Amino acid sequence: MVAFALLTALWLQDDPHALVQQLGSDDLEARDIAQAKLVQFGAAALPALEKGAKSDVEEIRSRSNHILGGFNYKNRAFVLSFSAMGEIGVARLLKELGTRTDQDERRLIVEALGLSKSEKALDAIKAETRAREGETRRVALAALGNFATKDAIDTLMASVNDPDPRYRSTV
Hints:
This protein is mainly α. 70% of the residues lie in helices and 0% in strands. It has twelve helices and no strands. It is elongated and about 65 Å long. 35% of the residues are buried.
């Protein structure tokens, strides 16, 4: 009964740093629950997992690295989870956009930046409206639709006359 209560409390835990510490628990079930919860947290767990990956405790280090290895910028749910993190998530997405060359990853990052509705993301999204790769460009135009700024609206209005009908239909 006590074990059940302890595991239930662990499942309800919403602090990624505390969950990372549970990755080193003596109880295998507690470790497995903490790992599952951290995967569910997605991007919000990154700082705690990155710290866990440097832990002196082998089990914490190993499980943290395992979870981090499963996070993929081609995984839509993972990338979109950054948009719910506020300015911290936007900063991480902008950093990743600056380093990623894979167009599938870039599209997801641009989509997440649009969902964040952060004005800090606006210049990067606008830059992607000039991308050579058509789908990234279309996603960037759709992302601008989340912004009610003159700058975003001007960029969208300029796309109304685009010779490519895919972009006109996005606007």
